[in-house]
Amino acid sequence: MAFGNRLFKALGITNRSELRLFAQKSGISVKKLEYYNEEGILPSRTDLPRILNVSGLSELELKLKLGIIDNFILNAIGEHSGEIVKLIEEDINVKSEDYAYKRVFETSLGTLYQGDCLSLMDDMEKESIDLIFADPPFNLNKVYESIMNDKLTKQEYLEWTEKWVLKCIDLLKEGGSIFIWNLPKWNTYIANILNQYLSFRHWIAVDIKYRLPIKNRLYPSHYALLYYTKGDRPNTFNEQRLPLEICRHCGGDIHDYGGYKDKLNPNGINLTDVWYDIPPVRHSKYKTRDSNELSIKLLERVISLASNEGDIVFDPFGGSGTTYIVAEILNRRWIGIEIGPTDTIIDRFNDIGFHRSLIAEIQRNKNKLFTEEMVEIRKQNGHWLPETLPKRKNKQISLELN
Ligand SMILES: C[S@@+](CC[C@H](N)C(=O)[O-])C[C@H]1O[C@@H](n2cnc3c(N)ncnc32)[C@H](O)[C@@H]1O
Questions:
Q1: CA dihedral 378, 382, 383, 386 (to 10 degrees)
Q2: Confidence of residue 397 (pLDDT cuts 50, 70, 90)
Q3: CA-CA distance, 398 to 12, in Å (whole number)?
Q4: Could you tell me the distance, in angstroms and rounded to a whole number, from the CA of residue 97 to the centre of ligand 1?
Q5: Is the distance from the beta carbon of residue 340 to the nearest atom of ligand 1 less than 6 Å?
Q6: Distance, CA 138 to ligand 1 centroid (Å)?
Q7: Is residue 213 pLDDT above 90, yes or no?
Q8: Check whether domain 101-364 has CATH 3.20.20.70, yes or no
Q9: Which one of 74, 147, 186, 276 is separated from 62 by 20 to 30 angstroms, measured CA to CA?
């Protein structure tokens, strides 16, 4: 039971019997009070007056205690900022706890540390990183080999999240980019933090089914990949193009290109903000139960898109080190850290030839309209290819179609 959460704290509820008593006095069930407390949301218009009545708080006071700040309150805070700073100055200068980290592995391009990313980030040079990719734990009550507690209350998880996100923002160079991978629910909160400091570029929906359907819910089918930049434009945006989507069995067209086939860009179609071609990693030899390895293809795309050779890439949540191995192969400098065991990451570097061949394969299959494999199957089944289309006399505009 999260008695440390803001609502119960505001109402002076510190244990189960106080909770039952409050429920009795207010006529609101224990279950509902727990729900408001866990979610950190303002009680409904029916329940709110009862809560205010029993607690003796005003609505504004309760909102402030819960951290629910609408624009009206925000403007008032702005008006009185001087007085407020004096009141809270002492409270906010509390230094965070220091956990040690140590260097465990190095290449000519990168360094891997073992320890807590918050401490490492405190010691890194501000505005020194070109690209950050972060795939934090999702707070799903997983058993981690590391000391990481993956079942925090929502409030604890969001407070911890805010800490590492703010540190990442500080590390990013002007024009640098940050990508954050998470469940859509958590990324709504993370976007809220990023919106205050960085420029929004995209909410990328990566189409991967990761759960069985749940009753009374939509079938969750995408991870959210947030993409933000420091300043109004990114230093690097290397266009990435994909082959045409075709039928896996016969190689035929899935979409109708009508009379525009010969206008399709020979380098492939535009990458959109819905990525449907990223495979889930289920059987990789490097996937361990607690590291949740991401696909090499995903990292190859992000790193190629938002950085250049020699740039510095940072990932605060190593896992099995997908970001680092891809950065190394693509000739980016990199900095990595993992709080749990790092042997899986080091094993991957010892097997770098295998990863080089995976990346070479990914790169062979991008930035073209048809891969070699696609050309073969289309030829076999008599589907059109750019060279089999009748030549048009009058090619004025070159349209790019998806
Ligand atoms: C979802 S996994 C990352 C997987 C990684 N993207 C990959 O493809 O292999 C998150 C990792 O962050 C690690 N972690 C959690 N808290 C951390 C912290 N404070 N500092 C460093 N690593 C942390 C966990 O042990 C876990 O291995």
A1: 90
A2: very low
A3: 67
A4: 19
A5: yes
A6: 10
A7: no
A8: no
A9: 186
Q: Which of 146, 287, 293 to mutate to test the pocket of ligand 1 (most atoms within 8 A of CB)?
A: 146
How far apart, in whole angstroms, are the C-alpha atoms of residue 296 and residue 26?
A: 54
The residue whose CA has the least distance to atom 3 of ligand 1 is 319
Query: pLDDT value at position 390?
Result: 82
Q: Does the C-beta of 319 come closer than 6 Å to ligand 1? A: yes
User: Is 292 a pocket residue for ligand 1 (Cβ < 6 Å)?
Assistant: yes
pLDDT band at 48 (very low <50, low <70, confident <90, very high): very high
Q: Is 344 in the pocket of ligand 1 (CB under 6 A)?
A: no
Q: What is the pLDDT of residue 283?
A: 62
Compute how many other C-beta atoms are within 10 angstroms of the C-beta atom of residue 150: 16
Q: What six digits make up the tokens of 264?
A: 């399709």
Interval 312-345: pLDDT, tens: 999 999 999 999 999 999 999 999 999 999 999 9
Structure tokens at 348: 């991957």
Quote the CA–CA distance of 349 and 106 in Å, as a whole number. Answer: 10
**Is the CB of 322 within 6 Å of ligand 1?**
yes
Statement: residue 100 has pLDDT above 80: yes
Domain boundaries, the chain: 6-92, 101-364
> Which residue's C-alpha comes closest to atom 17 of ligand 1?
339
**Is the beta carbon of 338 within 6 A of some atom in ligand 1?**
yes
Q: Which amino acid is at 136?
A: P
Q: What is the pLDDT of residue 400?
A: 52
pLDDT for residue 94: 63
